[in-house]
Amino acid sequence: MTGNLFESPDSPAAGEQFTAHCDGGSRGNPGPAGYGAVVEDASGRTVARLSEFLGIQTNNYAEYSGLLAVLKWANQNGARHLCVISDSELMVKQMQGKYKVASPVLRPLYEEARKMARRIEEFEIRHTLRGGNKEADALANEAMDKGMGKKPSESAKPQGSESAARPYGRLVPSAAPRANQPPAAKPARQILDGYVKGGVVHLLEGELPDGVFVKIIRE
């Protein structure tokens, strides 16, 4: 499902200053994913609402898809000045050149976004907290609901998109022995990329169930 709903029959004036709030989410990470975006002109009038269900993808893939949808809209409508606001610190910092793009899945999305952003005379991207992106978040959830055949009231809250800050590390899940039970077969070793922020470990891709013990190897 994709949308590009103008609030007025008049086309937005090319060259105006536009502000776009974009958001993406995934229920499961990876899981059913979607993005939402709201584009406003210089007077604060909403000129477009964009959303799409993406199938099974990660949070970060959905965040980049929302950004690409906004950039495509801006290119098609001749926008020369664009400020994008997102609650994905990872994506914002990567677009600003402050973080590297390590994921081979995100790399082509990042490169396409950079290419499209260069076509805009003045492009800026900023980070906001989740509370500052409510309408875009609602559109992303609506896209996921429709893609999953659910009513909005049945929606599950998507996991938040990851922020990122070096240093990265590798998380290696390990089996936790249980009392009075014979040792179970050792699970397959799994290596996941992640980072530590505020004393909490965050994964860049994938997820681990609660209760899993991990070994963290700093790189």
Provide the number of structural domains.
Answer: 2
Strand order of the largest sheet: 1-4-3-2-5-6
CATH architecture of the largest domain: 2-Layer Sandwich
Report, as a whole number of angstroms, the end-to-end distance: 41 Å
Helical residues, percent: 10-25%
- Portion of residues in beta strands equals 25-35%
Helix/strand class:
alpha+beta
Radius of gyration over all CA atoms, rounded: 19 Å
CATH superfamily of the largest domain: Ribonuclease H-like superfamily/Ribonuclease H
Order of helices and strands: EEEEHEHHEHEEEE
Question: Given the structure, what is the number of helices?
Answer: 4
- The residue-averaged pLDDT reads 80
- Given as residue ranges, the uncertain stretches (5+ residues, pLDDT < 50) are 1-10, 153-179
Give the CA-based shape. globular
Q: How can the largest sheet be summarized? A: 6 strands, mixed
The number of E-state strands comes to: 10
Multimeric state: single chain
Reading off the top of the CATH hierarchy, the class of the largest domain is best stated as Alpha Beta
Provide the CATH topology of the largest domain.
Nucleotidyltransferase, domain 5
Description:
It is a single chain. This protein has two domains: 148 residues, Nucleotidyltransferase, domain 5 (2-Layer Sandwich), CATH 3.30.420.10; 51 residues, no CATH class. With 219 residues, it is an alpha+beta fold. The protein has four helices and ten strands, in the order ββββαβααβαββββ. The N terminus is likely disordered. α1 packs parallel to α3. The strands form two sheets. The chain has a six-stranded mixed beta sheet. A four-stranded antiparallel beta sheet has the order 9-8-7-10, with no helix packed on it.
